[in-house]
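Appendix C: a fully annotated inverse folding record. The material below is reproduced so that readers can follow the format used throughout the book. The structure is listed first as tokens, followed by the designed sequence.
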């Protein structure tokens, strides 16, 4: 009896599929790389590599040594830190849930929240419900948040319009500039942090994907690290055209602050983004993304950084341009700190917000 044509086609297709599968199984292996490897002259993204815990001394949970009510716990002088508005409570709750789930439910470091307005009882209730650790709610002093007296409002408005024409993000938002200035040179001066040394900055609407089983603050202390980051990004050069020239002016007057093991080559690199370097007048615009940062506040409290921040503050670029805390922090670390004290944390996180 003749086999129907449809059956013959199915048998043929099955045979071809079998041959294809055998070929795929036994062919020579090929190299599979991430998207970055498809671009010529692109350094491989280290986030594509498997990562474990860093080498050296690490502190882990052992019994109740990190219990929230242990007055003699293994915790050191550190806090989780968030600048957040009352209206961002659900975004903050989401960030807390992620970080508590992946890390802080083991170590119970305190949360310190900052706002330029008093926190509502609703905000306090919702955030306290997400952690066993202590929660602190602090009001930012007006003198730390208000626009400085030397900033000319007419000039600010003109500058904001120019930035808007160049499609610079947050170009006309005065509150965004206040946030950047506070994060750059004010947060560590708050009385609530006077006796605190280390901080982990946490933004609303952040996702933390990696379980971390060691005390990251202890790692900073035991390994003499000043600053920890997750990724580097390039800034909009239109937002910081005079930041590097002002930095050069400062260095001309304070050459003694330049560290012998600095990262000047990284700051001045013109090979990867030559247009950025040109438009930023000598700065690569590459910076540590400060939406995630773990830091030692003793660096920000140093005379070198205090003098640098005051120079920038008086120059007015936080308002007349749109200098962000990320490039300001990055430049300062790249110039005034031993680059070996800057640590890459392979702790994947994502964050984005307005102010």
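Designed amino acids, in order:
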């Amino acid at each position: 009896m003749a086999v129907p044509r449809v059956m013959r086609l199915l048998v043929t297709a099955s045979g071809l599929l079998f041959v294809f599968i055998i070929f795929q199984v036994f062919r020579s292996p090929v190299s599979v790389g991430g998207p970055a490897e498809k671009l010529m002259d692109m350094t491989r993204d280290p986030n594509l590599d498997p990562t474990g815990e860093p080498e050296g001394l690490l502190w882990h949970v052992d019994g109740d040594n990190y219990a929230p009510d242990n007055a003699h716990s293994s915790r050191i002088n550190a806090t989780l830190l968030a600048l957040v508005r009352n209206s961002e409570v659900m975004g903050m709750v989401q960030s807390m849930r992620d970080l508590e789930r992946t890390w802080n439910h083991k170590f119970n470091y305190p949360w310190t929240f900052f706002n330029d307005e008093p926190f509502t009882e609703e905000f306090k209730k919702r955030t306290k419900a997400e952690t066993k650790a202590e929660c602190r709610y602090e009001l930012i002093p007006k003198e730390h948040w208000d626009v400085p007296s030397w900033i000319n409002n007419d000039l600010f408005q003109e500058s904001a319009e120019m930035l808007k024409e160049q499609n610079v993000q947050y170009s006309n938002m005065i509150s965004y500039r206040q946030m950047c200035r506070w994060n750059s040179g004010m947060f560590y001066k708050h009385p609530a942090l006077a006796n605190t040394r280390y901080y982990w900055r946490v933004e609303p609407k952040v996702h933390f994907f990696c379980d971390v089983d060691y005390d990251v603050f202890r790692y900073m202390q035991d390994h003499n690290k000043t600053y920890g980051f997750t990724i580097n990004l390039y800034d909009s050069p239109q937002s910081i055209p005079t930041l590097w020239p002002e930095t050069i002016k400062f260095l001309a007057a304070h050459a003694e602050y330049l560290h012998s093991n600095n990262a000047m080559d990284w700051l001045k690199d013109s090979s990867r983004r030559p247009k950025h370097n040109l438009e930023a007048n000598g700065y690569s615009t590459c910076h540590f993304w400060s939406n995630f940062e773990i830091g030692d506040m003793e660096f920000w409290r140093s005379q070198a950084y205090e003098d640098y921040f005051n120079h920038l503050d008086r120059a007015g670029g936080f308002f007349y341009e749109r200098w962000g805390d990320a490039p300001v922090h990055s430049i300062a670390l790249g110039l005034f700190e031993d680059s070996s004290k800057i640590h890459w944390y392979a702790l994947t996180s994502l964050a984005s917000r307005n102010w």
